[in-house]
Structures are given as structure tokens and as C-alpha cells.
Design brief:
Blueprint lengths: L13 E5 L3 H12 L3 E5 L3 H8 L10 H10 L3 E4 L2 H6 L3 E4 L14 H16 L5 E4 L7 H14 L8 E4 L9 H6 L3 E6 L6 H6 L6 E5 L1 H32 L3 H10 L21 H14 L5 H4 L1 H18 L4 E5 L14 H11 L3 E5 L10 H9 L2 H4 L2 E2 L2 H6 L3 E4 L6 H7 L5 E4 L14 E3 L4
Parallel strand pairs: 1-2, 1-4, 2-3, 4-5, 5-6, 7-8, 9-10, 9-12, 10-11, 12-13, 13-14
Antiparallel strand pairs: 6-7
Helix pairs in contact: 1-3, 5-6, 9-10, 13-14
The protein binds nicotinamide-adenine-dinucleotide.
The site of nicotinamide-adenine-dinucleotide (NAD) has 24 residues, from helix 1 and helix 5.
Amino acid sequence: MRDPRGGIHDVSLSISVFGLGYVGSVSAACFASIGHKVLGVDVNRSKVEMVDCGRSPIIEARMDELVAEGNRACRLHATVDSTAAVLQSDVSFVCVGTPSLRNGKLDLSHIEKVAREIGTALGQKKSAHTFVLRSTVLPGTTESRVIPILERASGKRAGSDFTVCYNPEFMREGSAVSDFLQPPYTILGAQNASHLAPLRELYKDVPGRVFETTVTVAEMAKYVSNAFHAVKVGFANEVGTLCKHLGVDAQTVTEIFTADTRLNISPAYLSPGFAFGGSCLPKDVRALTYQAKELDLKLPLLESLLPSNAEHVERAVEAVMRTNKRKIAQLGLSFKVGTDDLRESPQVQLIKRLLGEGFEVRVWDRDVSLGRLAGSNRQYIEEVIPHIGSLLSTDLTTVLRSADVVILGNKSVAKEELLTYLRADQIVIDLVNLDKRGRADGIAAYEGICW
Ligand SMILES: NC(=O)c1ccc[n+]([C@@H]2O[C@H](COP(=O)([O-])OP(=O)(O)OC[C@H]3O[C@@H](n4cnc5c(N)ncnc54)[C@H](O)[C@@H]3O)[C@@H](O)[C@H]2O)c1
């Protein structure tokens, strides 16, 4: 049988696919097309009959051809009998729907029902079996909801008597087959990497990078991707709307915007860390949203950015308050390392809030010290935040010595310095998400607010 790269290989693992909707029928047809033996399962008899007769149950490019071919080659069949499907396969993929309830909560009833059915069948099975959840579920669902049902229904233990993995699907309807056969990557989640052996075998002919990770990371990676897609669509539409009302050509703007793969379409600005600040982002977001208001436009995504940023500063205040300590060393006052620009620095906002809550704060920043500052920044400190200027010290040792809690406000402090001066009893709150190699170890607590 042809694999996506044109090679031929033998039938290897036997798979059952629960749910013959968009994800399930595409997965079933594609796994069959790369040489695996597949048995589809659905409660909907007409979908089962269609697949079993070689007809696609969904309208989707290339599906008619793949289902017919799988059927002709006797590699793709379907049944309504879930027990038989488990007994006849090595791996069960669960692709049933996870719709929204009226209040927005995820409806797990289909998954729970299938887990009970598969668990009951596992109770009768002597040989090894891998349960793979492919439906989109919130982090923790596989471990806290699905595994207990499987264990109760089977009377067996996950991890020893059978294994459980999470393998999210990234296909888009309309190009689902080519997305399956040429995915951006494959994510395989398990409690123990050894549980992934059958999945490695199943995906060995599918190109792209494979991430082997924990179940919860795999579950979350799917949501983060979809949330980001939604953010991108919302952003593009709001920006386009603003362009249209300003008489600016949105298409050309987009073409130029997306041509920057260093800062715009890239991992830049996508690392969980501290709030944005500085002389540009807050001011420019404010100007755009004010302009939108003048045009009577509602742009809720752009309007949400400054409140979201302020909320992040609040999270830092709360993290400090949770320590129940009063003496704080703030390392980093400017919005990022390598600048002494304090305009709209969220670090300054944080210190103001901490002082308001009665904390004792000392501040150190390699790039900002009253002695070195000149011109507008010196004036800014003396006129706008004189109370913070008086907390600044050029001596890192002194600032650290008196503190119970050390806040890493930007990346200006080096690990060697931290390791030299930090005491084991001090708590570090790392707002900027230092690279693991740059983090101090051997101290009471080292934590972030969004990592
Ligand atoms: N549609 C997509 O493009 C897409 C992409 C990636 C991930 N997902 C996720 O994959 C999951 C499935 O989505 P979908 O669009 O394929 O759903 P769907 O509604 O098209 O299909 C679900 C299928 O499951 C069947 N089913 C329900 N209960 C069953 C049971 N007890 N036993 C056997 N079959 C049963 C239904 O009859 C239906 O055919 C969802 O969690 C979804 O969020 C969807």
C-alpha cells in the first residue's frame, strides 16, 4: 500500500476508531491508506453501513477515494459492536464529539459512554490494548475522568493492564485528508513514554516532527492552538475593520504585516512572562482603540489588551501577597533588559501597587540607577515616580540581603549573581520566565505567575 511519501509497507497494527464523524472517519480512512487494518465504530448505523460498503460518511476532499480503496483492500470496515471492535484491535482511537453544553461547559457524555463500553470490553480481553483519546478535551480530563471510568468498567489498572494515550487531531475540514497525512506535527501524550510504542509504529510513515509529552501538555496544546487561531481571526477582522473605516487598504497592510516573520508571524512575544510596557505598545494600542471609538467601532479584542495587561500586573501583586512576607527586592525596573526607559513600565506599576499594600520594597536595575540616568528618564523618575527613585540602589548585595521575596522583573540579573547572593530561605518570583539554565536553584521557592 502507498504511504504518503509513495512507499509501500505491510499491514501492521489493527485499529478500532470510535466515532465516524469528521475526525474519526478521516483518521480511519487515512490509517487504512497507510497500511493499517481499521475497524470503525459508531452508534449511527447509517454511517457504519456507508463505511462498511466503501462510501464516505462525510463530504470531504479525497474521502470517497480513500474509503473505497480501504474497503476494496479489506483494510477498512465498520461495526456498531464496540466489544467486538476492542477484542479485534490493538489500539482504540476515540473520536466522538465533545460539544458545548448551553453554559459553555464541555459535554463529556459521549466520551464517558465510549470509555464505559471500551472498559467493559477490556475486562474480557487477554492481550494488550492501547486506548487513545483523540477528541478535544480540557487538560486533566483523560487522567481524572476517562481513566477512572476505564478502570472501573474493566476491573483492570491503566498503565499495567492496558495503556492510555492522548493524541490530538489538527486537521481542518475541507483539507482534512492532506492535513492528516501531512500534519504540522504529531503530538503523542502518555503517562509513560513506553506506552507510546504502538503510536510510534502507527505514525512512522506520517511526516513531520513528533512531540512525545505528557497527557496534559498534549491536551492543552490542542486548545492553545485553537484559541490562537481564534485570536488571529478576531485580530485580522478587527484590524481590517479599522483599516476599512480609515480608508486604508487592509489587504496591502496584511501583506506587509505578515511578511515580517521575525517579530510578527513568529514565536516572538508568545512566551508566557510579564506584562507588556514601554513607550510604544500601551500608547499605540490606546491610540488605535480611541480612534475606533471615534469611528463608533466596537473592537473588543483590541480593547481587551490593556485590561488584560493590567490584570497580569495584579496577578504579580497577588503572588507576592500569597508569600505572607513583607520585604521585597525588585530586580528590574525598566520594561525590559538593556534599556533605562521607564515610560509605562509594568514593573513600575507593580512597585506602586506593592507600596500601596504596605510592602517594603528595594529596587535594583543594572540599566537604571539615578546616578547614571540622564535627560528625560531622570526627569521622569524625579517628577513622576520620585518615591520609587528613592528606593533604587546600585548595590545588588544590599538589595538582596534585606529581602524575603525577590522579584525578577526583567532579565537584567545574571544567574551567577543570583546564586552568589541568594539565601536558601528566600522566595523568588520570576515574572519574566528566565530560561531554565538561568534560574537559581536550591532556594525555598522559585515560581512564576504564568509558567
Ligand atoms: N471537526 C474537526 O475539524 C475537528 C478537528 C480536530 C478535533 N476535533 C475534535 O474531535 C472530536 C470529534 O469531532 P467531530 O467533528 O469528528 O465530531 P462529529 O460530531 O462529526 O462525530 C462524532 C461521531 O461520534 C459518534 N458517536 C457518539 N457517541 C458514540 C459512541 N458511544 N460510540 C461510537 N460513536 C459514537 C457520533 O455518532 C458521530 O458520528 C471533538 O472533540 C472535536 O472537538 C474536531
